[in-house]
Amino acid sequence: MAYFIYLITGLIAGIVGGLLGTGGCALMMPVIRFGFHFDPAIAVGTTLTAVVFTAASGAYQHIKMKNVDKHTAWMIAVCGVLGVIIGSVVFDQVKNYGKVIDLILGIAFFGVFLRMVSERFSSKESEIYPENRFSGKKTTKGIFGSCVGFLTGIIGLGGGYALVPFFIFLKMPLKLAIGTSMASFVWIAFVGAMFKIYQGVANIPVAIFMGIGAFVGAMYGAKLVARVHPNALKSLFSLLFLYVSLKYIFIYFGISI
Question: How is the chain split into domains, by residue range?
Fold first, then answer.
C-alpha cells in the first residue's frame, strides 16, 4: 500500500512540477520527510533520485514542443554538473546532521514560496523571443548554473525553483523558461542522484516508484503549460510551500507544527 502512495505522490508531483517548472522535488520531499518520517539525508537523496525521471520526461516533452533554448540549456547543464559534484562532496560531510539539513531546506523552501509569490504578481511575459537575446550573458548563466548545481548537491531540491525565475529575469518567456529549466536540470539531477546512491542516502525502491509516477505526470504537466495559466496554482502552492518552509525551520528549534 505504501508503494502505491509513493506512486501517486510522484504522479501528482510530476504534473504540478511539469506545469510550474519546479521538477516535482518541492512536493515529493515534504511528503516522504514528514508523511513517512524519512531521515533528512535519506529524504534528500531519495527525492533527487526520483526527480531524474520527472526532469527527463518533462525535458523530452518541452523539447518536442520547442519550448527549450538549447544553447542556454547546455550552458546551465555543464556548469551545473560541476556545481553538483562539489555540492555532493559537501553534503557527504553534513549528511549526519539532520537538523542542519532541515534548517537549510526550510530556508530553501522559503525561497520557493517567494518565487511563487513574485511570479504570481509579475507583469505579463513577452511573446517575442529574439534568438540571440542571451548570447552576451554566458558568464552570468555559467555562474548561476554552478550555484544551482552546488545547492542541488547539498539539499537535493530541484533547480526549477531557481532556474525559472532566473530565466524570467533575463526576459525569457515563461513557457521557454520552464522548458529550458527542465532540459538543463535533468543532467544536474542525474549526476547528483548518482552521488547520493553512492553515498548510501537514497532509498532506491521508493525513488523508482515515485519516479515512475513523476515520469507519467510530468508529460501531462508539460502539455498543460500551453493550456492552463498557472497563476491560480501558484497562489495555492505558495501557501503550501510557506507552511513546509516553516515546518522545516521550526523542527530545527524543536517545535512541531
Answer: 2-124+135-252
According to DSSP, residue 69 is labeled -
> Which tens digit of pLDDT belongs to each residue from 15-61?
877 666 566 777 888 889 888 889 999 999 999 999 888 788 778 87
Residue 11 is placed in which grid cell?
A: 504522479
3-state secondary structure 218-249: HHHHHHHCCCCCCHHHHHHHHHHHHHHHHHHH
Residue reference for cell 539532520: 98
Following CA atoms 240, 241, 243, 246 in sequence, which dihedral angle do they give, to the nearest 10 degrees?
180
Torsion, Cα 115 218 212 96, to 10 degrees, reads -10
Q: In the prediction, which pLDDT does 241 show? A: 79
Average pLDDT along the chain? 82
The closest alpha carbon to 152, from 20, 45, 15, 68, belongs to 45
CA–CA gap between residue 124 and residue 42 (Å, rounded): 40
What distance in Å separates the CA atoms of residue 113 and residue 157, rounded to the nearest whole number? 13
Can you give the C-alpha Rg of the chain in angstroms?
A: 17
Contact between 193 and 52 (Cβ < 8 Å): yes
Cα distances (angstroms) measured from residue 200 to each of 44, 77, 196 = 11, 24, 6
Interatomic CA distance for residues 53 and 25, integer angstroms:
11
